[in-house]
C-alpha cells in the first residue's frame, strides 16, 4: 500500500538481521571445523590479534542481539556449529547446547523470532575426514544431526537446513577456494546431489518431530541481465544462464520446502558478443563464481561495494519475479547486504533494495521476511575481516562495536514497517546519491527493471 508517498509493508512482515556461527563466534570453547584447519594452514587470513565479535563469550552475542532489537527488528538468523555440538561422531557436548540455548533465549526475550541454519558452510573434522559432502555417508549423518537438533530446540520454529549449497558446490568442490578445495567436477556433482538429499531427508525427519515448524534451504543468486537489452538473443542467453546456473538448484525439491531462502547481493550483465564467442572459465569466487560461460560478464555502471559488486536493486526485483514463478513458495530474504566499511553506500543499498522488495510484495509475490546481512562485521571467509557487512561496525582487534549510521535508516523502516521515501533519502543518503536513488526508486515503483547509472544515464527500458 502507498499512503501519501509512504510505502507500507504488511503488518506480518518481519525485518531482521543475519549471521553464521563460524563468522561471529570466535574459536574459544570446543570447536574444530574444517575451516579452523584451513585457517591454521593459511594463518594470514585471520591474525591471532583479531578476536572478532566473540559470540561464544557470554554477553557478547547478547549485547548485539539487544542492539538489533533496539532497531525494531523482529527476526534474527543465526547458525549452529555442528563441530561444537557433536565434536566426534555420536558424542554430544552439552555445554555447547546450553550456550546456543542462551543465545536463542536472548533472541526470544528481545521479542524476536529465531531462525536457525543447521549448516552454514563449516563441517566437523570427522565429517571432513570422510570426504565432506562428496561422500554419501554425510547425507545420513547430517539428517541424523538435524533431527537431534530440532528435538533439542523446540523453542525454534524456523529452520534452514543448508546455507547456499549452490555456492558450496562451486567454491569448495568444483574449485579450490573453500575447504575441502576438491577442484573436481565429479566431487562437485556428488556434493551437489548429496546436499539435496541431505536436505530432503532432514526435512522429512524434522517434520515428523516438529510438524508445525517451517523448513527451507537458502540459495545465493548472482542475477544476470543482457548487456544489450534490445538484442533478443542476448536476452534469451541471459535467461538461459539464469535458468541453468542460478535457478537449476532451486527446482531440485520444491515439495520439500516450506519456504525458499533467497540470498541476494549483486548482479552482472552478460554480453554474448558473437564475434568473440568462446567458452571461458571465469575465475574468482567473489566477483563471479567459477562457471563456464560463453561470452563476457560485464560489470554494470552502478555504485560498487568494497568487493566491487555492483548495486543493482532492479535485478533483485527481476529475480524475485522469476523465483516466484519457478517455485510458488513463500520467499524469505535470508541475506541481503553490502561490504561497505565506511558506510558510504549502505543507506543507498538498503533503501533501494527494500523498495524493490516492497514492489515485489505489491505484485503479490509472497516475500515474508527480510534479514539484512549482517548483524555485526564478521569473518568474511577467505577475506578475513577485510570486508565489513555489519549493521554494527566492529574493531576486530578490540572487539569494540559501533552502530553504523545506515543502521538508523534501517531502524526507521523496520520499526515503522514503512518507507517514507523522500524524507529518508534526504535524511540518510549523501547529497550526490539522492537524485540517482530517487530515479531508481521511481522506476522500481513502476515495476521497471532499469538501471540509472551514477551519472544519471538510464541503461535500459
Ligand atoms: C554467505 C555469507 C557471506 C555473504 C557475503 C553469503 O554467500 O552465506 O556467509 O558472508 O555471502 O559474502
Protein architecture, described:
With 461 residues, the chain is α/β, with parallel strands linked by helices. Helix content is 39%, strand content 18%. It has helices at residues 21-25, 34-41, 60-70, 82-85, 94-109, 125-129, 137-152, 165-173, 185-209, 232-246, 313-327, 346-362, 405-416, 421-428, 431-445; strands at 2-3, 6-8, 14-18, 75-79, 113-119, 158-163, 214-226, 259-271, 279-281, 292-294, 296-298, 331-336, 367-373, 392-394, 401-403, 418-420. It has an eight-stranded parallel β-barrel, surrounded by six helices. The protein is globular. The structure holds beta-D-glucopyranose. Residues 20, 23, 163-164, 167, 220, 263, 335, 373, 380 line the site of beta-D-glucopyranose (BGC).
Radius of gyration: 21 Å
- What profile does the largest beta sheet have? 8 strands, parallel, barrel
Class by alpha and beta content: alpha/beta
Q: What does the average pLDDT come to?
A: 93
Number of strand elements: 16
Ligands bound to this protein structure: beta-D-glucopyranose
Strand content: 15-25%
Question: In whole angstroms, how far apart are the ends?
Answer: 25 Å
Number of helical stretches of at least 4 residues: 15
Spatial strand order of the main sheet? 3-4-5-6-7-8-12-13
Low-confidence stretches: 284-292
Q: What shape does the CA trace take?
A: globular
User: Helicity range of the residues?
Assistant: 25-40%
